[in-house]
Design a protein that fits this description.
The structure holds two protein chains of two kinds. By secondary structure, chain A is mainly α. Chain A has twelve helices and no strands. Chain A has one domain: MetI-like (MetI-like fold, Orthogonal Bundle), CATH 1.10.3720. The longest helix of chain A has 34 residues, at 60-93. Chain B folds into two domains: 2-54; 73-307, Orthogonal Bundle (MetI-like fold). The longest helix of chain B is centred in the first third of the chain and has 35 residues, at 20-54. Classes of the chains: A mainly alpha, B mainly alpha.
């Protein structure tokens, strides 16, 4: 009994560990900019206001970046999941030459130092005219998300009882019905979980976003944050950066709250079998 | 169309190795794997090869006419320049500190998540928040917490107007804090997955034989999850070695806090010195290969589980 209480206290410590920096972010986002230049900054705002949020949403620097972030991340996630789904199915179910090569390649890409590519990609993208475009970011995101997508999904696919498909057909279902009514519902959770993890990956990227964009055209939020400025030269940009940060953290928090179990399963499925 | 294509094993009567069915399965496997394979090779191997070629030239985007072949001279210049070794040392320090702290802290978290009875769900949910948060956002949060004009840290610790980002090691300390906060949850979940697989009966048997909790940790728990630990270590080490976002946001590389990835970015993108920058890229790639090699050959890290075969 006593021991279980200690574990609970340790659990509370973990919750504090996770949320304390978040509270600090929210507190800063609600501070009036004048709180930042004051001599003795406090943890909490002197007065609370949502002014910073309206400010941030009135700037194209942020609104465009938000649209870019959402669009690029969703498209890259969708493409990555589709391409990886084929590979994961093949890995989980089929016997074919080159399976080892594919898995080793994925491992190599997962370890690859992405910063080593910004130079050549920067140059190549300028030459073929996709520098500072959505597609210019979608391509590297798709590529570097693939190992994660392939591993996670093939781990999920291995657990699917595929015989059920044939069982359904024996019971008189057509092959399309068997696929739609039996296999799709079984595979969907794994595919969906993979999509969440892939989305986090694309949503998080900064290196490619700062290297392969130069304007609002394709700049995503992480890259845009570096360009925020205060309302005047004498005003701090801190509350605006934090207000924007709160906005882009909201989807993360929602996904985590809604799909905690799946995310944990997905994260560990790809890395450790069992 | 795709439906029939994704159903290779329609009940076939006693299909042998060289049968049509096996051949069809092989062909389908190749077709399905091809898109992933092509994308990964095209977007990484090709640019890397391009970087190797560029690294042999003196080539600035601002002076395309002055492009000339210089052989390995760029490498010589970099490896004799203190900037490279400085960045190497910074990257090395950040990697060693963050990985060591994260391993210990991650183990603590994993044990808590394993043993906790009440509130298991909320704890696992909470720990995913740092994992999911954007690295740049984490960097800004910690930077503002330690900054003189906005931060509470100096007030709480009574440090007055100590400038954390004015000195190399205090700046690296804050960079490590942000990195550790964000990535410990991931390593702790990997370790938790390893911990769950440690057979409970062995623990009980050792307990009966009078082994202390400490002995059980070192003699049973850690040895039986060695594979999981090594894999987690390898991935975290490589991840830390590639660190870019945190130093970029916190210091912009000032006060010798630039890392190798940052140097590659600065040479290639900021200075558009593509010849020299490509040489840095290739060197960065080689350091990563070396680290992976040390783990696989030196520490006998078994990657077949990760690879999935």
């Amino acid at each position: 009994m006593k021991q279980s209480r200690w574990w609970t206290i340790a659990g509370v410590a973990i919750v504090v560990y996770s949320f304390f920096p978040l509270l600090w972010m929210i507190s800063l986002s609600l501070k009036p900019p004048s709180d930042i230049v004051s001599g003795e900054p406090q943890f909490l705002p002197t007065s609370w206001s949502f002014e910073n949020f309206t400010q941030v949403f009135s700037q194209p620097l942020f609104t465009r970046a938000l649209i870019n972030s959402i669009g690029i991340s969703l498209i890259a996630t969708l493409l990555s999941v589709i391409v990886a789904m084929f590979a994961a199915y093949a890995i989980a179910r089929l016997d074919f030459p080159g399976k080892k090569v594919l898995l080793s390649l994925a491992l190599g890409i997962a370890m690859f130092p992405q910063a080593a590519l910004v130079g050549p990609l920067f140059n190549m993208w300028r030459n073929i005219g996709i520098y500072d475009t959505w597609i210019g970011l979608i391509i590297p995101y798709l590529t570097f998300a693939l190992p994660l997508s392939i591993w996670t999904m093939s781990a999920f696919f291995r657990q699917i009882p595929w015989e059920m498909e044939q069982a359904a057909q024996v019971d008189g279902a057509t092959s399309w019905q068997a696929f739609r009514k039996v296999i799709v519902p079984l595979a969907a959770p794994g595919v969906f979980t993979t999509a969440i993890l892939t989305f986090f990956f694309c949503w998080n990227d900064f290196l490619f976003a700062i290297s392969l964009t130069s304007t609002n055209n394709a700049r995503t939020v992480p890259a845009a944050l570096a360009f925020f400025q205060g309302a005047s030269m004498f005003e701090s940009a801190v509350p605006y950066v934090m207000a924007a940060s709160v906005v882009v953290t909201i989807p993360v928090v929602i996904l985590v709250l809604a799909f905690q179990r799946r995310i944990v399963a997905g994260l560990t499925a790809g890395a450790v079998k069992g | 169309m795709t439906v029939t294509a994704t159903r290779p094993d329609t009940p076939a009567p006693a299909a042998g190795k060289g049968s049509d069915r096996a051949r069809g399965e092989r062909r389908l496997g190749l077709y399905l794997a091809a898109p992933s394979f092509i994308v990964m090779v095209l977007v990484t191997a090709y640019p890397l090869g391009y970087a190797i070629v560029l690294s042999l030239f003196n080539y600035r985007l601002t002076d395309p006419a002055g492009r000339s072949f210089v052989g390995l001279n760029n490498y010589l210049v970099i490896l004799t320049d203190p900037v490279w070794w400085n960045d190497f040392a910074t990257t090395f320090a950040i990697t060693v500190v963050t990985v060591a702290v994260e391993l210990v802290l991650g183990f603590g978290f994993a044990f808590v998540m394993l043993r906790i009875v009440r509130g298991r769900g909320p704890v696992r949910t909470a720990i995913l928040i740092p994992y999911g948060i954007i690295t740049v956002v984490s960097a800004f949060i910690w930077r503002y917490a330690f900054a003189i004009d906005s931060g509470f840290v100096n007030q709480w610790l009574g440090l007055g107007d100590f400038n954390w980002f004015g000195d190399r090691w205090s700046a690296i300390f804050v960079i490590c804090l942000s990195e550790i906060w964000k990535t410990t949850p991931f390593i702790s979940l990997l370790l938790l997955a390893g911990l769950v697989q440690v057979p409970e009966e062995m623990q009980e048997a050792a307990k009966v034989d009078g082994a202390t909790a400490w002995q059980r940790l070192w003699k049973i728990t850690l040895p039986s999850m060695k594979a999981a630990i090594m894999v987690a270590l390898l991935f975290r080490t490589l991840d830390a070695w590639r660190i870019f976002d945190n130093p970029f946001v916190m210091t912009g590389g000032a006060n010798n806090t630039e890392t190798i990835s940052f140097l590659a970015y600065r040479q290639n993108v900021s200075l558009v010195n593509l010849g020299m920058g490509s040489a840095v890229s290739v060197l960065l790639f080689l350091t990563v290969v070396a680290i992976a090699w040390i783990f696989v050959k030196g520490f006998k890290t078994d990657l077949s589980q990760v690879r999935g075969d």
